[in-house]
Amino acid sequence: MKELTFVMRMMMKEKKDIVLSIVLGFIAGLAAVLLFSASGYLISKAAFAPPFYTLMLVIASVKLLSFIRAFSRYGERYVSHRGTFTMLSQLRMAFYEKLEPLAPGIFQKYRSGDLLSRIVGDVESLQNLFLRVVYPPIVLALVFVSTIFFTMFYSIETAVILFVGFLLTAIVIPAIFAVRQRTIDSKVRLKRASLSTEVTEFLYGFRDLKIYQQLDDKEQQLLQASDAYIAEQEQEEKTTLFNQSLNQFVSLLVTVAVLAVGAYLIDTGELDGIFLAMLIMITLTVFEDAPAMAVFPIHFNDSRRSAKRLFSIIEQKDGQEQEHVSVAKTLTINEPPEITLENVSFTFTGEERRAVEQVDVHLPSGSKTALVGASGSGKSTLMQLMLHLVTPEEGRIMINGIELAHADEESIWQLANVVLQENHFFYGTIRDNLLLANDTATDEELQSILAMVQLEHFHLEDKVYERGENLSGGEKQRLAIARAMLKGGSFWVLDEPTSSLDAVTEQAIYEHLFRQAADDTVVLISHRLAGLEKMDQIIVMDEGKVVEVGTFTELMEKQGYFYEMKELENNLL
């Protein structure tokens, strides 16, 4: 049950709707029993052809009970679904708030299709927690207890039969199928996640699959995932129908038993025959909601499994989260940041080799630093650590004298102008994608920024497709640089920002960029070593470690690792 603790807390926030829906559901169920019992009595009484006025009270009662049943059932449906949808909304928000700090590291552990399936599908499955798991047994028990108590005034034997039927349909049969369901362990959610993953990869990789002529094989994998999902759904539906059928069968047996016992009691003179139809109608009505208990084990296991899958990706101790919130400090943004890394190490999930190992780096306020090294040397990882996108296993990172682990994340990102190797662009217009950085910028400012990165041929209303599919690699990089320049932070983190640009365009953009960042702290990650003479310091990395630090002149005079890289670049060019 611990998997459902968080969801139950979300549900209890809507306790007013929960209590009201249970009350209305009880009134609707009890009104239905009384309505049909009155109808049965009316039929029996009318068979004796009494004066019409003697039936008026019963007829009025039937009409009144029918109205009560209809309105209370409508109210119960309205309130219960309102409470459920509100709970789901709160659940999504709470889940997102816990998930957001884990990004983008969460994508190293989970595939995007699986995440989508959990966030959408599993949250939707949890709507059954109240409607199918919590609500039915409570209302059913209340209605049954009231009905049995009412029936005792006419026939103790009938009350005992109803009690036995209640035990069988509401407790024994669901318990048996709960054990069976646990052994079956339906994998519908897992198969749905697998299908979602396959569909996502198929869509994103369609072009590459077509180029490498692997489209047919991927289609077969997609169809296999779809067939597996359908098979699991069919198995679940068969189990549900069988449970409901057995429960309904037992309910009918109880009705037959009440009829048989009632006939015997009438024969022995222990029961007035006029009440037999009433008892039969009561039995038929009170078991109307019994099939809901037949599927109780399925919905309970489904909700438990969905909650487990959903929150397994954000497992964190509440105490640690509260501690982080209580000590979070806001960074000052009135001056360029000073950054210090002390003995920092980090390993990606599932990897044995450390991406960064025992790194000591100092970036003075307003300094211009270049991070260079071979691919896989840890440069981009170091950038993620500075931005608090991932958390170091060892050591600490200080910004303006505040340890990064204790700093407010929003204030960290407010400082930063970031250009990554892969930048995301949203479906919309050029204006929409630029305004992400500064939503108060005017059209004139946006056009000016575009001119600085040599994208003056773009109009602000030009369309941008999903993930920028209609832009070239160089246009994407220039648009990302424009977005960073527009933000106006004092900490620049540039990860291969011009790798897709020609030398002339690169030089022109760098002139504008470094002019704007003249007093700011700049970290440039680059494979190209040309133009680094102007940097205040160059940090050379290899296999996750810092092997050299110094100015361009100092490193060239040392004739070490950086010198060899520069000589090799000169020879290639």
From TrEMBL:
Name the SMART domains on file: AAA
What membrane topology was assigned to this protein in its record? Multi-pass membrane protein
Q: Which UniProt keywords apply?
A: ATP-binding, Membrane, Nucleotide-binding, Transmembrane, Transmembrane helix
Q: Does the keyword Transmembrane helix apply?
A: yes
* Residues covered by the ABC transmembrane type-1 domain: 19-288
Q: Where is the signal peptide?
A: none
The residue ranges of the ABC transporter domain are 339-568
**Which protein, by its recorded name, is this?**
Thiol reductant ABC exporter subunit CydC
Its taxonomic placement starts with:
Bacteria, Bacillati, Bacillota, Bacilli, Bacillales
Gene it is expressed from: cydC
